[in-house]
């Protein structure tokens, strides 16, 4: 039987080339028609600390990296020690023959100890080539056409020196030859129908979404795990007349975006936890001055510097509540590259329509890991909804009608027309202070009450513009699992498995935290046992959602905080344990 | 005069709200010099944006008839940078105090200077935090005794003009708000200059800083014979003047050349907001071309 679901981990130390080898294999499998999910587990370090990439490929669309791995390539003894236990029975492990294996007892796996480093040294004088030799070895073991891997290899090395490309091709050949000598049984990997899908990270999808949304000003400070947005837009925004600026700090980058928005552009900034700490005062400003602004926030493990390169859902509280005073905002939470794109487009429309900051709350596992997707959900027919904008003609009318323009005019829906500096006929005044309708400091607090009410009225209709939670399963199921972001894949597979065992499960994936579809969530959960999974230790999601149920008793937390997304089996086991013990 | 459309010509067109500054505040002189400078240059209120931070002096935008953004403490330069890049046709004036610009906003000050963005930054320097009722500022002298430094400040003061010259500003001057006529000329030159113009203005706080009165400044300032031809010379002349116990004023340094917006857009006439207004959504095919190497 041909294999339809395969997972491989390539593990070593930073600088070993594990990530590159893994990406090449992933892309080759994608071109073979598989859906690929990848999980990078790497340090905040350039060389010398443990790094690995896990890829899982399936002929059906998957969102999770699965539980076990079928194959492991370990470039270091520590990598073997740490990951061999994850290899399923009947799987395959490739290590370097120079390892001291005295204390290692492989399970029931095909275990190959082969001269990766030796060949690299003998033929290329550099051990780094071991990664491509190992890739060739795996290619043979998986019965992947030599040319398929070679094509991807060349594709990935595009632009490199000819000699380096040639050496790598030779290293790949050597890997195939080596495997012919060693491999006892080869796997047969299936082939899918569509080899032309995209393999994209959340960061790339957000950057692309920004361009599609008409964002023409992007200012940011490099920070893991969102820097790729800055790199992508630095390269492509100028093509559309736009500007990308790497600023002196996080504070400057959000304030520049605010300035650009004030002047009439669609503007965005991007960051992660520590950066958002610094941007908070400007978040409060954007809310108070009623500036449309999109903030992309990719969570990483905290607090403080924490683990910069690993995922978390620890910033839920911060993103929902950051800023002094009654700061209004919208918080959208994507799970996939498609949603990262789609929510970015939505974010710009919501920001302009309601004149406030919109935060796209992602996380490292989505922002930096690549996935195969069928399509970019770009609908040419969706408009840039710019909301209430004062046209030049409308501005000129102020010259004849004897009225003066008021940036913060009190309106029934709370939303006033935005004029822009430079327009003839209007003087446009923005203010971080509480203000009069025409934008002057309200020194005598004459308008405080009206202004607060105006800002609250703006929020009333946003719920109609944000993504509703995704419900999966039968409404009659007596148990429901709730989660956000990267938990999607594990939730889906866990629910399927639990249902196979007649546990009666569904899941609800929340895609907008603010505003929250409270009534909808309540009606789907009120009579059920609720399990909330989240990647933090404080149960931040559960605490936030508890407003929906009050003191409902049968709500249970499943938490993980080691910097990696959930695996399906972890959820299944924990749910079974809770059911056995508590219900 | 299309630029002044809808306004009766005359300096009154720049008239804003009545100010709430203390009577005799140095900032009145700055406001007056700024309005006259705009008037003499014939720049319309429509084309001008005044962006400020937090503090007494940062309330200036309310007192002038022009587009404005009263932002947050120390962040006026980043906001102004965003505005200027979005629409370089605007005349962007940035106004704030010494605590705002050299203290909490110090990092942005250095980087705006080094970026050489084409805007005019006027700092009303009273060597004190006044809006919070009198505390030591980064410009206050060593040994300064106030509420938060009852035993005398142990910090040495910053020399903002030395800082901006060495950071890369291309127009650096210091004026005195007691001499509106000269200050107005500095501001006019600063506005006309293409690049980052930094004008530090000695602006007495008559309520909380009796040491630095109009009389004190009149007696102690020394007008330098600038602008000097090199940064080194400007720095050296400023330092020599301080060593003599005098406060250097004047236009210290001017350098013509490429500025930030010209560098990124390649033209003085390019307005990103205008370009954006004319843009239509991308065709799907066009968008997907950007990620062609991702499949």
What key attributes describe this structure?
heterodimer, A: 583 residues, alpha/beta, seven-stranded mixed β-sheet, six-stranded mixed β-sheet, 19 helices, 21 strands, 38% helix, 20% strand, globular, B: 295 residues, eight-stranded mixed β-sheet, 11 helices, 8 strands
Summarize the structure.
The complex is a heterodimer of chains A (583) and B (295). Chain A has 583 residues and is an alpha/beta fold. In chain A, 38% of the residues lie in helices and 20% in strands.
Describe this structure as you would to a colleague.
The complex is a heterodimer of chains A (583) and B (295). Chain A is of the alpha/beta class and 583 residues long. Chain A is built from 19 helices and 21 strands. In chain A, the strands form 4 sheets. Chain A has a 7-stranded mixed beta sheet with strand order 9-8-10-11-13-12-19, sandwiched between helices. A 6-stranded mixed beta sheet of chain A has the order 2-3-1-4-5-6, with helices on both faces. In chain A, helix 5 (146-156) packs antiparallel against helix 6 and helix 7 runs parallel beside helix 12 (337-354). In chain A, 55% of the residues are buried. Chain B has an 8-stranded mixed beta sheet with strand order 2-1-3-4-6-5-8-7, sandwiched between helices. The longest helix of chain B is centred in the first third of the chain and has 15 residues, at 27-41. In chain B, helix 8 links the parallel strand 7 and strand 8 (247-254). Chain B has 11 helices and 8 strands. In chain B, helix 3 packs across helix 4 and helix 4 packs across helix 5 (160-167). Chain B is of the alpha/beta class and 295 residues long. The interface between A and B is large, with 68 and 57 residues.
């Amino acid at each position: 039987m041909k294999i339809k679901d395969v997972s491989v981990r390539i593990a070593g130390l930073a600088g070993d080339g594990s990530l590159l080898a893994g990406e090449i294999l992933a892309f080759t499998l994608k071109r073979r028609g598989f859906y690929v999910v990848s999980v990078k587990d790497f340090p905040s370090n350039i060389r010398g600390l443990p790094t690995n990439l896990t890829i899982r490929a399936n002929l059906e669309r998957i969102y999770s990296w699965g539980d076990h791995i079928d194959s492991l390539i370990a470039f270091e003894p520590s990598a073997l020690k740490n990951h061999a236990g994850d290899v399923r029975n009947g799987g395959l492990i490739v290590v370097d023959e120079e390892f001291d294996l005295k204390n290692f007892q492989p399970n029931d796996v095909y275990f190959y100890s082969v001269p990766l480093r030796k060949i690299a040294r003998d033929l290329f004088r550099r051990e780094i080539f071991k990664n491509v030799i190992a890739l060739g070895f795996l290619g043979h073991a998986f019965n992947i056409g030599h040319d398929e891997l070679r094509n991807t290899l060349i594709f990935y090395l595009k632009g490199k020196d000819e000699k380096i490309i040639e050496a790598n091709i030779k290293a790949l050949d050597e890997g195939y030859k080596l495997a012919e000598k060693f491999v006892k049984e080869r796997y047969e990997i299936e082939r899918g129908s569509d080899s032309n899908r995209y393999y994209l990270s959340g960061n790339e999808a957000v950057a692309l979404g920004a361009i599609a949304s008409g964002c023409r000003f992007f200012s940011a400070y490099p920070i893991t795990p969102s820097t790729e947005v800055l790199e992508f837009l630095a390269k492509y925004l100028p093509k559309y007349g736009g500007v990308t600026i790497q600023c002196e700090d996080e504070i400057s980058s959000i304030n520049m975006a605010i300035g650009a928005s004030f002047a009439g552009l669609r503007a965005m900034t991007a960051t992660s936890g520590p950066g958002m700490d610094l941007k908070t005062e400007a978040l409060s400003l954007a809310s108070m001055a009623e500036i449309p602004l999109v903030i992309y926030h990719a969570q990483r493990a905290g607090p403080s510097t924490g683990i910069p390169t690993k995922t978390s859902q620890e910033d839920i509280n911060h993103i929902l509540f950051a800023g002094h005073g009654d700061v209004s905002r919208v918080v959208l939470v994507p799970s996939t590259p498609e949603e990262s794109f789609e929510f970015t487009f939505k974010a710009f429309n919501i920001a302009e329509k309601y004149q406030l900051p919109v935060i796209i709350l992602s996380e490292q596992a989505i922002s930096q890991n690549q996935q195969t997707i069928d399509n970019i959900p770009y609908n040419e027919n969706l408009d840039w909804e710019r909301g209430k904008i004062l046209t030049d003609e409308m501005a000129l009318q102020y010259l004849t009608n004897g009225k003066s323009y008021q940036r913060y005019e009190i309106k029934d829906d709370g939303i006033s027309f935005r004029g822009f500096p430079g327009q003839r006929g209007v003087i446009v005044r923005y203010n971080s202070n509480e203000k009069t309708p025409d934008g002057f400091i309200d020194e005598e607090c004459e308008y405080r009450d009206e202004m607060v009410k105006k800002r609250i009225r703006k929020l009333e209709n946003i719920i109609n513009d944000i993504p509703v939670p995704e419900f999966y399963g039968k409404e009659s199921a007596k148990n429901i699992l709730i989660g956000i972001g990267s938990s999607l894949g594990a939730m889906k597979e866990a629910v399927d498995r639990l249902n196979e065992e007649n546990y009666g499960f569904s899941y609800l994936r929340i895609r907008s935290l603010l505003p929250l579809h409270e009534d909808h969530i309540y009606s789907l959960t009120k009579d059920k046992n609720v399990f909330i999974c989240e990647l933090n230790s404080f149960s931040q999601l559960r605490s936030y959602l508890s407003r929906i149920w009050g003191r409902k008793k049968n709500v249970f937390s499943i938490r993980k905080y080691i910097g990696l997304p959930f695996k399906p089996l972890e959820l299944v086991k924990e749910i079974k344990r809770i059911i056995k013990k508590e219900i | 005069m299309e630029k002044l459309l809808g306004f009766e010509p005359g300096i009154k067109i720049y008239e804003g709200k009545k100010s709430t500054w203390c009577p005799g505040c140095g900032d009145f002189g700055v406001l007056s010099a700024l309005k006259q400078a705009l008037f003499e240059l014939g720049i319309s209120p429509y084309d001008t944006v005044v962006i400020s931070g937090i503090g007494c002096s940062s309330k200036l935008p309310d007192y002038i008839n022009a587009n404005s953004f009263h932002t947050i403490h120390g962040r006026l330069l980043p906001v102004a940078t965003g505005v200027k890049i979005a629409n370089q046709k605007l005349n962007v004036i940035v106004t704030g105090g010494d605590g705002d610009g050299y203290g909490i906003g110090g990092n942005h000050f250095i980087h705006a200077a080094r970026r050489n963005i084409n805007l005019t930054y006027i700092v009303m320097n009273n060597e004190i935090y006044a809006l919070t009722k009198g505390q030591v500022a980064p410009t206050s002298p060593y040994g300064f005794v106030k509420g938060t430094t009852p035993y005398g400040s142990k910090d040495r003061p910053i020399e903002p003009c030395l800082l901006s010259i060495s950071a890369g500003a291309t127009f650096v001057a210091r004026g005195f708000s007691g001499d509106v006529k000269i200050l107005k000329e500095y501001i006019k030159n600063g506005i006309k200059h293409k690049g980052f113009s930094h004008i530090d203005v000695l602006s007495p706080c008559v309520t909380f800083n009796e040491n630095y009165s109009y009389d004190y400044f009149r007696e102690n300032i020394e007008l330098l014979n600038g602008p000097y031809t090199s940064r080194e010379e400007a720095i050296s002349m400023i330092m020599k003047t301080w060593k003599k116990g005098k406060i250097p004023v004047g236009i210290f340094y001017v350098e013509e050349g490429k500025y930030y917006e010209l560098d990124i857009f390649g033209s003085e006439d390019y307005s990103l907001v205008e370009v954006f207004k004319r843009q239509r959504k991308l065709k799907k095919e066009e968008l997907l071309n950007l990620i062609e190497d991702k499949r």
